[in-house]
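User: Please run a holo structure prediction.
Assistant: Happy to. Please share the sequence and the ligand.
User: Here you go; the ligand is coenzyme A.
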Amino acid sequence: MLATLGRVMVLKSTSLRPGCLVRPIAPTKLPGRYFAHQKSLPRLPVPPLLQTLERYLLMLEPIVSQEELEHTNQLVKEFAQKGGVGARLQASLERRAGKTENWLSDWWLRTAYLENRLPVVIHSSPGVLLPKQDYHDRQGQLRFSAKLIAGVLDFKSMIDNETLPVESLGGRPLCMNQYYQILSSCRIPGSKSDSFANYSVTKKPAHVTIVHNFQFFELFVYNSDGSPLTVDQLYMQLEKIWHSSLQTNKEPIGILSTGHRNSWANAYNTLIKDKVNKESVKCIQRSIFTICLDAPVPKVSDDLYMSHVGAQMLHGGGSRWNSGNRWFDKTLQFVVGEDGSCGLVYEHSSSEGPPIAALLDHVFEYCKTSEMVRSPMIPLAMPRKLRFNITSDIKRDIEKAKQNLNMMVRDMDIKCFVFEHFGKDFVKSQRLSPDAYIQIALQLAYYRIYGEQRATYESASLRMFHLGRTDTIRSASVESSVFVRAMDNPQEQKQNKVTLMRQAVQAHRAYTDLAIKGQAIDRHLFGLKHQAIEDLVRIPEIFMDTSYAVAFHFNLSTSQVPAKADCLMCFGPVVPDGYGVCYNPMDNHMNFSVSAFNSCAETNAAKLAHYLERALVDMRDLIVQTNSSKL
Ligand code: COA
């Protein structure tokens, strides 16, 4: 249900009626260019049933046993029978697609995000590391933060005026909806399902929140005439905040937002029983975004620096360090350290990585060019400190949240690195897709460690369609399976290996093209299953099958998040025995993050990173050697 509470557009997913239209924000209420563009986008199609089922069986080949495959074959045949349950669900899904703006988006938002009870920290919210900045003290930290705020406000003006350039993929315009949700928004915990609130729908908020030493402040960033504060003015305001939050013994109230969603929902209800607390929480939720001025953390060697900052961005380092210096439900939080380290963490339910990366690129360029401009000395009001009354119940919830978070932090195994041997340019020069090349290298790396392939998820953008989010590119394919087995086989000729490699890369790229056109299998299967739940029919056997469980147990959860800036996104694995892998391929190098859980004896982020580097290089060497032998 899309409920307007005062000025706030709140998306409450628990109260959704089957088939009811859900929009993450209310695009139809926004007139003008944005609306016209959104209206012109095609609707997400429902792929043909038999096409999906055939591709499903093909996708299972490299990851399930022959016996399982035969069993699943039989189930698929029954499901696909003329006039059978598959056809009925397909017809319902097509009807739903005809009635809604996007047949998938509200189901996806609920299932993948709002109803997911795992903590958002590590399990859902990605972190982004920015290149280290050239400052080493508090002044530099505040100066950079002031520029950052000004840069985001500059970007925001394009959103407010609806002048943000429409992006395209393969020459086709993309849905821009996600950009309209990342500012002035927040996730709100709920006992069975969370909700997502966007506060910019009517009266736009005019403040950001600043957090320093676990203390939150409301900082108004516009003058009374509507012009944004200058970098100079922002700097002065940040100085005031810094000086009035020197005490380091404050309760880390923000740490509550790191909890399991049910625990956090309970703690949240306790917290906002107090009027003062409720008002402070509202102020954080409504703010345009948050700046976390982090306390200094122990220095690490250059080798460890990237991984260390990646972890800081993901979880803040634990209760002793900066995890309490966040409000993890806030959609966008920039993190600025005193030592030049910086980046952000964002709550994922409203947006994928690319719009965040595009915002970062803009802000980063802005920070490089903007100089401190002396502002007229109009005295500005002291930013308001947000007060919290900490009762014994709240204190107890904070202590529990600290313990759980510290366990999660200890469990996080993360390796961030720069692959320096080559970048996109080399791969393109070989007439291969860089993204597909990286994915196939990852398959090779995994196979070399484990001697088998596992279900692999790569995000594919569905933004060619109105309100499109993502589908899945399956990198463990028949073609990649043939290649990874051949690569280290001494009986195979190099020429044959390179042919198999090219075929694997091309098959991956071909599946990518299908996925971005809405013809991949994952969201379609998800839709059929959800349709069965909504139609109250028995869940069909194919969704209860071992093969289905194997296919959706993503040991490798991966994503490309490209950016012009030399930055890197990182996220946690999605299964206890899995890896999270994210990369930003630049022209002449590539940035990678690999994550795993220490509690799983079989996984090791540094080991996969090492094997990935080797696979990328070995594939390059194979190409170069076979190219030169042809001369
Ligand atoms: N020969 C030469 N060049 C090639 C090539 C070939 N055979 N195939 C591709 N290229 C070029 C492309 O033209 C492109 O050039 P550009 O850098 O000048 O634009 C470049 O190589 C990159 O293409 P490719 O590596 O194939 O990937 P892509 O940019 O098309 O991205 C996906 C692929 C899957 C990452 C993208 O389609 C997508 O869906 N991105 C969204 C992912 C997402 O949402 N992630 C966030 C999750 S939080």
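Confidence is low (pLDDT under 50) at residues 1-31.
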